[in-house]
């Protein structure tokens, strides 16, 4: 193969790579910016006396997220609906039905230090 033929084949390969890269960037931009086809996971405050809550130990501030919640509920919220949440807290928007929120069931995950609380009323009913 001659040097000019090799340069031509390298040129076509680079152009194909560039075009494919631009297509991937444009498709990603469309799905994430315009269509907003993804979900946010939000944490809202929770009362462990009345409802089942996720729990984490926040005695060490470095082990706790910025929201500082040690008892919380987790919801999955569509990115399109997330703009309706006030101050990144979707509690009122979810409770009022203004947006569709899917509550994530509490599951114990000791690797990240999360457990589940059982409400006092349910503890007495089980006995």
Short description:
The protein is of the alpha+beta class and 127 residues long. 39% of the residues lie in helices and 20% in strands.
Descriptive notes:
This protein is an alpha+beta fold. Helix content is 39%, strand content 20%. Strands 1, 2, 3, 4 and 5 form a 5-stranded antiparallel β-sheet that branches. The protein is elongated, with a radius of gyration of 24 Å.
Highlighted features:
5 strands, alpha+beta, 4 helices, 127 residues, five-stranded antiparallel sheet
Q: Sum up the overall morphology in one term.
A: elongated
Most strands sheet: 5 strands, antiparallel
Kindly name the structural category.
alpha+beta
> DSSP helix count?
4
Give the helix/strand layout.
Layout: H1 3-34, E1 39-45, E2 54-56, E3 71-78, H2 79-82, H3 91-96, E4 101-104, E5 114-116, H4 120-126
Antiparallel strand pairs: 1-3, 2-3, 2-5, 3-4
